[in-house]
Amino acid sequence: MKSWLTSLVLFVTLGLAAHAQPFQDKTATLGLALGNDQACWVDLDNDGFTDLCAAGTVWHNEKGQKFTKLADVGLVVAADFDNDGFVDLFSWSQLKLWHNNGGKGFTEAPLPTLPACVSRGACWGDFNGDGFVDLFIGGYEDWDKGITYPSLLLFNNHGKSFMLTWQDATYRARGVTACDYDRSGSLDIYVSNYRLQPNRLWRNDSLKGAALLTDIAPEALAVATTPSFAGGHSIGACWGDFDNDGHFDLFAGNFAHVDSRGDQPKSRFLRSLGPTGGYKFDDKGECGVFYQESYATPAAGDYDNDGNLDLLFTTVYGVASFGRPNFPVLYHNQGNFHFTDTTGAMGVSNLPPTYQAAWADFDNDGDLDLVSGGKLFVNQGNPNTHWLKVQLVGDGKRVNRSAIGAQVRIKLKDRTITRQVEAGTGEGNQNDLTLHFGLGAEKSPVTLEILWPDGKTQTLKRIKPHQQLTIRR
């Protein structure tokens, strides 16, 4: 009976996915002239439409109909650092902090004197639990000079200033992304390191005020089927509940050369074993993410609203070793860690090499749109599925205004769909802060369980699909 039910669920899921319509490139139609570098989606003026920061330029979203240029700020991640109700920007490419002036422009805000640093990505999070978001900045390298730049943790002094509280120059970081994956009440940080260095999972024990980060990657990966996997030639990773069991998994992306030492570690999914498994991770392997040499940054989003997180994975090179073409790939999540290539079917073939990959429903029509490769792809939707959007707002006292670190779970009959508010994913990108839930065939009202960053839980019942709900702490 169980096998029959599993087959039926898989059949229904595949049938729903088959009716998803291809993406359409609307970049020029929407007035955009995008560069090819990293992107961040965020609503900067609280008008209900998410704006776009891409390749260093801020574009204002004019009610989903077009975009107009607002400012040049560098490559950014976004959160409201002073809890004034407007989301601010940190440029990890320029190491500059930009204060949002009511959605009309930006003023550079002071940062403390920092050690020399070149960064490829950063993330916001309230790492010490005081209600204000802090900054974790990944430190990269100067290859020619043999320099490893330090990764930095800056604590936020109640929106008035920042203080450098921790630094580490052991490894060469690229992507950084945070999640309270073990529901302990503190945001932990996964760092993707380059040059065949091990990736790091920093357990955060900073809630008492002092910066205390401990690398637990060897311990957390101890049950992996490939124990030697501790990282690789990594560029970016993303958190997501890929099997809908209510626990956050990891997709670890690797740029994997074939060299004289043999094959370098391939990209893989790391499945959380949840509380019964001590929140360690099981190495599931590639799960259908086929090998090509020059993978770059991943971005997870449910593009067809079937309830499963799909994956866009970009590339560094257009042509890799031995003259082999490499293209970004869109992988559809069929469930049970089974991913298939839907790049051609969904209209995103032959994208150029890029580090740009981020998801948002910019036109508020209920499906996720995609920016990658210097193009904005508008999702044409899946008429057979349902959806819900949830915007969380902190009180600015116990919970930061952007609600970074909050988690929402929707329990359906056969699965639990889980999303988190995050400010930094892959290598230097950011998906929209508004959470997007594909509900598949579920059209009845659902129950939301919210885990706020201060550890409090909130339950909302009988929430109807096909709406955006704003919930305040």
How would you sum up this structure, described in words?
This protein has two helices and 41 strands. It has 473 residues and is mostly beta strands. The strands form twelve sheets. It has a four-stranded antiparallel beta sheet, with no helix packed on it. Strands 2-3-4-5 form a four-stranded antiparallel beta sheet, with no helix packed on it. It is globular. The N terminus is likely disordered.
Task: Kindly provide the radius of gyration, computed on alpha-carbon positions and rounded to a whole number of angstroms.
Answer: 20 Å
How many strands, which pairing sense, and closed or not: the largest β-sheet?
4 strands, antiparallel
| Quaternary class | single chain
Shape: globular
Number of helices: 2
Percentage of residues in helical conformation: under 10%
In spatial order, strands of the major sheet run 1-34-33-32
First-to-last CA distance: 43 Å
Number of E strands = 41
Could you tell me the mean pLDDT? 93
The portion of residues forming beta strands comes to 35-45%
Low-confidence stretches: 1-16
Alpha-beta content class: mainly beta
